Amino acid sequence: MNHSFEVDGVDFQLWLSPCQQGYRLRLHDKVIAPIAFSHQADSRGVLTIAGQREPVRYAIDGEMLHVRIRGRTCILRYCDPLRTLASTNQEAGHLVARAPMPGVVVKTNVSPGQPVSAGMELMTIESMKLETVIRSPQDGAVDRIHFNEGESFERDAVLVTLSEERR
Amino acid sequence: MRKLSFDTVLIANRGEIAVRIIKTLRKLGIRSAIVYHDVDARTPAVLMADKAIAISGRTPISAYLDSAQIIAAARNANAGALHPGYGFLSENAEFARAVMKAGIAFIGPTPESIELMGDKIRARNFVKRNGFSVAPSAIEEDDPATFVSRARCIGAPLLVKPSAGGGGKGMRIVRKLDTLGDAIAQARSEGLRYFGDGRLYVERYVENPRHIEVQVLGDAFGNVVHLLERECSVQRRFQKIIEETPSPALSPGLRKQICETAAGIARAANYRNAGTVEFIFGGGEFYFLEMNTRLQVEHPVTEMVSGIDLVAEQVYLAAGCELGFSQSDIMSKGHAIEVRLCAEAPERGYAPTTGKILVLEYPDGDGLRIDSGILQGQQITAAFDPMIAKIIVHSPTRIEAALKAHRAVAELVLLGCETNASFLGRILADEAFLSGHVHTGYLDENPHIAAGNSASDLSAFLATAALLTRPIRESADAVPELHANLGCWRN
Amino acid sequence: MQRITSSVDVKSQEFRLNELHNRQLAAELKERQRAARFSRPERDLERLRRQNKLFVRDRIEALLDPETPFLELSTLAANKAYDGEVPSAAQVVGIGMVVGREVIIHADDASVKGGAWYPLSVKKIVRALDVAIENRLPVVHLCDCAGGFLPLQAEFFADRYHAGRIFRNQSILSKMGVPQVSIVMGHCTAGGAFVPALSDYNIIVEGTGAIFLGGPPVVKAATGETVSVEELGGAHMHTNVSGTSDYIASSEMHAIAIARDIVARFHRPEKVSIDRATPEPPAYDASELYGLIPKDARVQFDMREIIARLVDGSRFHEYKPRYGESLVCGFAQLHGYQIGILANNGVLVNDSALKGAHFIQLCDKSRTPLLFLQNITGFMVGREYERRGITKDGAKLIMAVSGASVPKFTVVCNGSHGAGTYAMAGRAFDPRFMFTWPQSQISAMGAEQAVGVLTHVKARQLAREGGRLPEQELVAIREPILEDYRERSSAYYATSEIWDDGILDPIDTRNALAIVLSASLNAPIEAPHYGVFRM
Asked: How many whole angstroms separate alpha carbon B477 and alpha carbon A16?
């Protein structure tokens, strides 16, 4: 079972194995070897890849890795298989409306238990100084509203949970 | 030596501008007090201020818009003056009046000036009356019943704006007239929420214009000077991203003309304190856009080339002092560029980003100034404007300034929250920008600058991440040498 | 150590003909293995998809660490049984790496007869668990079995090494402290239900996994109770109510992730430390093995040429090179592991038996695993040899082979006949692993001699009855006897019956041996001790 990282919503499968001068990395059908990383001070290190030494700045925050190489910063999320694979079916029977971007709830248009139809306005959020309407992805009933008006949320946060059946 | 009538100033703002004001107050030997919402408790401005007073609200923004709490805080801090910064209550005449009524000097123009010039509609009428050119427009207030039809008469493209406020909030371009109704409704809703004012106006949207503005200062003795122009044409969704002075688009003659027009408007308005007169410039013509009756975000570029501390001037002027210099004293030296570092992802439609700042290191060097409102360890939320810091450079020439800014952006280390740093780098290295050929639609016309190179090779990043991720390294280290050497052999 | 100098002319006509022949045999092996592994009627694969199940091979690939080897055992089990309709005996068994641990993987193949257990399936599972016990290898069971194939129950139910042995072996493994994890990926019915139950850990997949001693139809027949699969033995029932299962997984991949997390917690046993050098490839290319193995099984060849293409740097320290020359003995390294090799260079005679018995004791004392390379027609017969005590000396070799404590590995390179099979660590002598090359013949007697004997017997019978067999008829009865004898002494028959752990393409032998050598060192090696050698 490969390891995987998510970068900007794209899944990257990889596997690291030991080799004589460090490690070898398999990325899809590409093999990069040897690679090595030496830690220096806090958040600093040197990556050796393809015979090149690249100074690296990095920070780790839970599953998020922030890596900066040659002035470019990339945010990678380590996808723990236990978590990512467990969640595939978790919300079966429950549909969710997620936040397309971080923001603040401006107005809630529905209340729990209320039947809704696809496309109906559930919530108005404010982000980037613009209001965005969160609409129901399909027919159902409102199960739970996760944020009150004025509360802020992160990207991909579940804003409203719907149940499939109309009650 | 000009004397100040107060020893404490309350700052009714947050983030980088609050820090920037505190720095000048310190230099002037004045105590600083600041109001803050709980989400900002651990930000540098709150930590730097001599006194910090918590305020609350339904949302963090609403706390900073609550004039009663802020004036109470100013009293509590024994503040003799209040600096509103930019945004929030900075262009709210009622607030300025309430501050003055409380016996506190308002560091900004008079409420009357705010009402006249801060209100786009009145300002336009005033400017037009005084013989300066303005774009065709329809003002709701003139006759609300015919507002929409008058707007239609101007013809597309149109720009719908809230009468109050600025900073691009609530502005909408209408290219097809049948979407005018929706744009008006949305702009009104946002205007109400940001400025507590739902009035709108509509004007002809000029395609490919350049945004040029002029910094002015006025005192209570009728003296008005301009501190030359700034160009702010690199914008996304009406939000300035890169500002510079001098403008590469102006000939000396036009520069003189536009700067004197600005000073003339300020003089006609009997304007006091710092203000900015904004113009639309296109096809060799310029006309009045609006006046910002406050300190601008991009004021540091003017400070860099003129050597004048605009906040210090604001404080003296609010204290009733006379301007310390005349027009002929003002010299511009070299070229300054400011880039706005924002917690946003231009690659994903400028979506705001959030996160905890895990590593923060600013570049330093000669001619480099960082106005930052953040600290390592701070959580960036979506509650406020995404701008977190400004990087300002000063060099003898424009091209050197652009190179210096590019290097500064590349050297900046901010981990933990995605920023627009590489996007800024892409603009600073773009041919059109370097040759000075930009207009306010430049980024819309060049979407590749925002999109970046998504297909670029991530191998080095993935290799680093793999080597830094414990389960990945452990699973590699667990494999015996023999089996690692055999690889995925099958019989 | 001296490098073996090959004296084979790789450009000779003979070499080329051999090569062509053996490459064809290897290609045929690969094709048969491929078919056994992947060739399934579309309707069976479609059924798996409908049931939301992965094909057994995909399950295993997901379970394994990528970029690590998997040595599959007995791929062609049952290839000559049940009309060839139960490929691999509906079981996949192999040694692989899971989170850096060497484990035995045992997986039911639900694409074959619903994963039903046939007699050879049971034999294969018992063998897999014997391997686990002998080498102390943890086991991951991927369970998806409809139960035993009842029409053949007499061949797998009651005897000592029948199905009960699976559960006995599981219990013994647990008692030894060798952990097992089961993933219930389908129905585990009747005996099959005990596989997860007897595992130290088990995971059940929601929706598809179920465990019960009697399925709903059996329950209906026995007690009249109508009950659904889910109620009777579904994932929720077993994880919430009965406690038969430990973890519930939302999908097969999730279950595999949980299993990997469990294996990652396994204590990593200290391996037996044996001499290990830096690995080095052989000086001669392994593919030359194809040209070395004679097309005609009766042609003798020098085993040193084979050794030169198996061991590190082709270096071989030969022991007693001038004594008992029909048994080549000596030390070498294979992927860095120090081993002792016994290889046949002709029929076993007194000297070679004595040399072999002595060499085995040397290796045993120095903790050196033994590799037997078989190409043996048997012990020498005749008055002269009996007088010199060939039986007595042969007994010494068998005593040494049986009593050696170090791990033994056997590769049948060509012929394996008569008492030679025994003396060279045949299956009965518990080599840890035993592999066969495709052209090998395994039988009590070589086919020609055996058929000679059989026709002779037949002719004598007729003679007693007064008749005489005309030459033509003699040929007529000889042919079917020969045919049948050859068939049942072929490598494919041997592997079908699980007399070995699989047929190897000769060029895969080195890697396969390295993997099993490494695996064998998980079990401690007892101090050397032997029975009585007849002097």
From this structure: 9
